Amino acid sequence: MGTATRSPITLLDACALLSLFATGRMQEIVRAVSGPVAVVDTVAVEALFVRKTTEGVWEEVPVDLTPLNRGGVLSTLHAETEDELLTFIDLAVDLDDGEAMTGALAIHRGCAVVTDDRKAERILAGRVPLRSTLDLVKSWADGEGLPDATLRPLLLAIDERGYTPPRSHPLRAWWERIMSGG
Which residues have CB under 8 Å from 46's CB, separation 6+? Predict the structure, then answer.
């Protein structure tokens, strides 16, 4: 009998968490990720709300992770060692606290990081496996066989939240095709 290899923890940074939450389908998307998914406590504190428009009026929708935590879909981690804290301090020189703590825990615990922050990508590249919010959304959508018409409102919500993939993003053409409705 062989031993099953366990997928590493996937850590969501603040921008990824907010974009996924904005879709309204975060639980489904996160459930489709191979292995456990978590946020660091710093990110949970930073990610307070997403902005969305309803009939042309901006509103702030509170980010409530409680159902995801209770359902075992998402856990919250915190620094446990001096090495993690020292790495956090080093990374916090260049990154926001949420990205820095996410990076520190990922480096020391062998986690993958989901981020759409270009600076975080640059600083963490080669140190941890990196994914983007769109990687998670597309993987989930492909697995479910979802049509573009179903995905378009989700991508619009991510765009409205404030994230548009850069031209260099590997999934930019996919994004543009769905956003254009064709």
Answer: 14, 96, 97, 98
Reduced to 3 DSSP states, what percent helix, strand and coil does the chain have, rounded to the nearest 5? 50, 15, 35
pTM of the model: 0.91
3-22: per-residue pLDDT in tens? 445 668 999 999 999 999 99
For 78-121, write each residue's pLDDT tens digit. Answer: 999 999 999 999 999 999 999 999 999 999 999 999 999 999 99
Does residue 19 contact residue 161 with C-beta atoms inside 8 Å?
yes
CATH code of the region 10-179: 3.40.50.1010
Residue 115 CA to residue 144 CA, distance in Å, equals: 23
